[in-house]
Amino acid sequence: MQSIEFHTGIEDPVEFAVRLVRKAYRQRARVLVTANPATLERLSRQLWAGYEREFIAHVRVDRCQPGQAARTPLWLAAGVAGVQNEPTVVINVGASAPSDPARLERLIEVVSAEELDAAQGRQRWRLYKAAGLPLTHVNAGA
Questions:
Q1: How far apart are the first and last CA of the chain?
Q2: Is 32 helix (H, G, I), strand (E, B) or coil?
Q3: Phi and psi for 39 in degrees, rounded to 5?
Q4: Whole-number pLDDT of residue 46
């Protein structure tokens, strides 16, 4: 594990995640975005149509063929489990904490300003801290 970054107080977690994805994509990183199904659907729509001149190829892990996922640099999934290719960056938008975060190269937690999401983010922070993982906090709401 190189780093875990927490970005908290985010007004629109999907838009924020899209910006992170665009940046990682330009750096040729393999990116996995984890979130609940409704958030993944919104994220997928934003990636298809959000930026007129910058389409980002992506797949929903639960809806694609294994070979298709291997050829695509961006995966959307409910969690890290079951993802065959090793991502360079994992962007977690409110999903459960990965079962083995220490094996990930980089994990970015996107935590909204909503109270339930903030409470769950604090719980993930405590989990990672107890595991002795390196943490960085950026408060976007400050």
A1: 27
A2: strand
A3: -65, -40
A4: 87
Whether 84 shows a pLDDT value over 70: the answer reads no
Residue 87's domain comprises 3-139
Cα 20 from Cα 48, distance rounded (Å): 15
pLDDT value at residue 128:
93
pTM summary value? 0.89
Give the C-alpha distances (Å, rounded to integers) separating 18 from 41, 75, 127.
13, 13, 26
Q: Are 14 and 73 in contact (CB under 8 A)?
A: no
**pLDDT for 102 beyond 90:** no
Q: The CATH number of the domain where 117 resides is what?
A: 3.40.50.10110
Structural domains counted in the chain? 1
